């Protein structure tokens, strides 16, 4: 499903039993919408509901519900997303706005757990985050395909050059053959004049002359057929020789291909099935962990509660108490809220570890699948080779029979020619007029030679016509090659270009934000893209430059940034990805939450800056922060 930037006047969102929301309907207008309220007022649940309708799976059912629904209505189209609690976790169905929400989750859904924000906050490598939406494997496959096509075109163009260089030689051969034909025609005409002059002086009857001429015509016909048989015999022998060479090559290749790969294939398939089972188990565990994490986050963020999962029903029973402690769902004792948060963080780490294990298993499964495919390819190759060998064997046998038949016919023709010429010599007329017989035989040979010259000329003219047809394609082939060369350049530089654009976008936006936010002791925050010393990927280095009271600049550690500074840097990094990947062209929403680390005035400035880049900016704010933003922005206070 593909979407362009939304042009609707407003968007309708209907939510049932998602997060902490029982049921709500909300209208959103283009521009900024402020979700105003204290903590535990379902603002984050509403943002995650929008994310769910757009395609994200980072949401949870209401704890006491078995089914949930989010419907997003945009431009007269409704995109439903349904949720059902099952023994294996939450089953999701429906027709979300996006087929693949990866780009949006990285650069448009800017909640606290957003990957771009977390990468900056935790000091992680920034490049993988900005490059996550780019399928570098597909790019490399396309490069390989286009490189092969370019090589093919180069071969075709080189062949055209060879044909063009051969054209003058062939044209010269045609000219020479026509001259030879004309010369032999002149010679034949002279011989025929001599025959006519000689016969005019003879007294033999017309019947005798006719018999002689008929005998010569028969000899000429036999010689013409003999020439054709000889040419066909040479062609058949050449074809049989080529077939025998190919037969020997295939037999040699067959010796190197195992007769059976069944046992090896069954072993690999067994290992792959085992790995797939392990992967399925891990994915179930990951899903369960995600549901557990999501549920508890919603309880902490939206309701200020952390429930107790009952083994049979899975319902929430205990709630947070006023003093910041909670009844732990594992042991029933009172613990600090921060301890529960730490436990959730450990659950996240466990989920991340299991996701890494899933990734490792996927790599192993892919490797085994490649090996199995290679075995299948080898088996298919052996079958193809056997079929080719059978076909060649049959062809060789057929050509051998044809050669034998042609040799027999050649011998028969040579015998018939010899017998006919002997009969002519035995004729009384021929014995009495040996000179005239020689003239007839000479004329006979000239007519055969002229016929053969005509055949050679016609063959060369056919070849010249084919060359002209091929040369007419040169402009088309050159244009295609030029296009492919340009596409290869673009493909090879696409990753580097996106990296460079991301860095430039971040640095430019960061300069503007720092000036807007008035962080007085920060001179600059910027990313440096460095070419790798080894490997095939660049590296992103985040730099912080501060200034002292005397205005002197010095580089500081990223870890020394304040929480406010880190959050702003993370948001700007996400915005850079949003702009570089043109997210606004396919995702009309930018969702923003958890900005309490910034003071109210800076939040207001941040909102006004982000507003210019997203068709719909929906931000969750505390009442005191909401008062600082523009009063013209619509506010939603109840969800």
Give the strand order of the largest sheet, numbering strands 1, 2, ... along the chain: 2-1-4-5-6
Please compute the radius of gyration using only Cα atoms: 43 Å
Strand content: 5-15%
Unreliable stretches: 302-323
What does this structure look like?
The protein has helices at residues 43-54, 102-107, 115-121, 127-131, 136-200, 206-256, 262-303, 337-426, 428-432, 434-471, 474-517, 563-580, 600-611, 623-626, and strands spanning 11-18, 21-28, 31-36, 67-74, 77-86, 89-94, 109-110, 325-327, 334-336, 522-530, 539-547, 553-556, 589-592, 616-621, 635-636. The protein is α/β, with parallel strands linked by helices and 639 residues long. A hairpin with a 2-residue loop joins strand 4 (67-74) and strand 5. Helix 5 runs antiparallel to helix 11 (474-517) and helix 11 (474-517) packs antiparallel against helix 12 (563-580). It starts with 10 loop residues before the first strand and ends with a strand.
In short:
With 639 residues, this protein is of the alpha/beta class. It has helices at 43-54, 102-107, 115-121, 127-131, 136-200, 206-256, 262-303, 337-426, 428-432, 434-471, 474-517, 563-580, 600-611, 623-626, and strands at residues 11-18, 21-28, 31-36, 67-74, 77-86, 89-94, 109-110, 325-327, 334-336, 522-530, 539-547, 553-556, 589-592, 616-621, 635-636. Helix 6 (206-256) crosses helix 10 and helix 11 runs antiparallel to helix 12 (563-580).
């Amino acid at each position: 499903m593909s979407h362009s930037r939304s042009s609707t006047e407003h968007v309708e969102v209907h939510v049932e039993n998602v997060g902490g929301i029982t049921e709500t309907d909300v209208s959103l207008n283009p521009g900024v919408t402020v979700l105003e309220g204290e903590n535990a007022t379902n603002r984050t649940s509403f943002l995650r509901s929008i994310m769910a309708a757009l395609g994200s799976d980072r949401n949870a059912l209401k704890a006491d519900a078995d089914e949930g629904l989010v419907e997003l209505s945009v431009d007269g189209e409704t995109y439903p997303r349904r949720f059902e609690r099952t023994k294996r976790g939450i089953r999701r169905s429906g027709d979300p706005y996006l087929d693949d929400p990866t780009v949006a989750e990285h650069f448009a859904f800017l909640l606290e757990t957003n990957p771009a924000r977390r990468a900056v906050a935790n000091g992680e490598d920034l490049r993988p985050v900005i490059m996550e939406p780019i399928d570098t494997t597909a790019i490399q496959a396309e490069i390989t395909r286009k490189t092969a096509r370019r090589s093919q075109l180069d071969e075709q163009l080189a062949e055209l050059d060879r044909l063009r260089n051969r054209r003058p030689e062939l044209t010269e051969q045609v000219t020479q053959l026509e001259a030879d034909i004309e010369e032999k025609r002149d010679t034949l005409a002279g011989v025929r004049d001599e025959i006519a002059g000689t016969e005019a002086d003879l007294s033999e009857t017309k019947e005798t002359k006719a018999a002689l001429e008929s005998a010569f015509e028969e000899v000429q016909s036999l010689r013409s057929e003999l020439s054709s048989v000889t040419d066909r015999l040479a062609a058949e022998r050449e074809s049989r020789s080529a077939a025998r060479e190919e037969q020997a090559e295939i037999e040699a290749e067959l010796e190197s291909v195992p007769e059976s790969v069944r046992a090896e294939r069954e072993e690999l398939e067994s290992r792959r099935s085992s790995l797939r089972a392990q992967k399925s188990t891990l994915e179930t565990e990951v899903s369960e962990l995600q549901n557990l994490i999501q549920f508890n986050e919603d309880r902490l963020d939206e309701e200020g509660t952390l429930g107790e999962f009952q083994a049979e029903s899975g319902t929430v029973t205990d709630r947070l108490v006023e003093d910041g402690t909670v009844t732990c769902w594992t042991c029933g004792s009172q613990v600090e809220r921060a301890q529960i948060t730490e436990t959730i963080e450990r659950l996240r780490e466990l989920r991340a570890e299991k996701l890494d294990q899933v990734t490792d298993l996927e790599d192993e499964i892919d490797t085994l699948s490649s090996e199995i495919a290679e075995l299948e390819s080898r088996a298919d190759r052996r079958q193809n080779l056997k079929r080719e060998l059978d076909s060649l064997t049959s062809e060789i046998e057929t050509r051998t029979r044809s050669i034998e038949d042609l040799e027999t016919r050649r011998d028969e023709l040579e015998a018939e020619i010899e017998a006919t010429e002997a009969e002519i010599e035995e004729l009384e007329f021929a014995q009495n007029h040996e000179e005239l017989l020689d003239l007839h035989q000479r004329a006979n040979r000239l007519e055969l030679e002229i016929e053969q010259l005509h055949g050679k000329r016609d063959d060369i003219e056919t070849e010249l016509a084919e060359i002209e047809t091929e040369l007419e394609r040169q402009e088309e082939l050159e244009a295609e090659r030029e296009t492919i060369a340009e596409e290869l350049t673009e493909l090879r530089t696409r990753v580097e270009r996106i990296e460079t654009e991301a860095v430039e976008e971040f640095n430019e936006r960061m300069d503007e934000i720092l000036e807007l936010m008035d962080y007085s002791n920060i001179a600059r925050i910027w990313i440096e893209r460095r070419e790798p010393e080894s490997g095939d990927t660049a590296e992103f280095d985040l730099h912080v430059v501060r200034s002292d009271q005397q205005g002197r600049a010095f580089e500081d550690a990223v870890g020394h940034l304040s929480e406010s500074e880190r959050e702003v840097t993370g948001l700007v990094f996400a915005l850079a990805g949003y702009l570089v990947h043109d997210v606004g062209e396919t995702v009309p929403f930018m969702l923003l939450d958890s900005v309490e680390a910034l003071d109210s005035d800076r939040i207001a400035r941040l909102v006004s800056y982000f507003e210019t880049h997203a068709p719909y900016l929906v931000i969750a704010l505390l009442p005191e922060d909401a008062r600082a933003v523009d009063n013209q922005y619509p506010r939603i206070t109840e969800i």
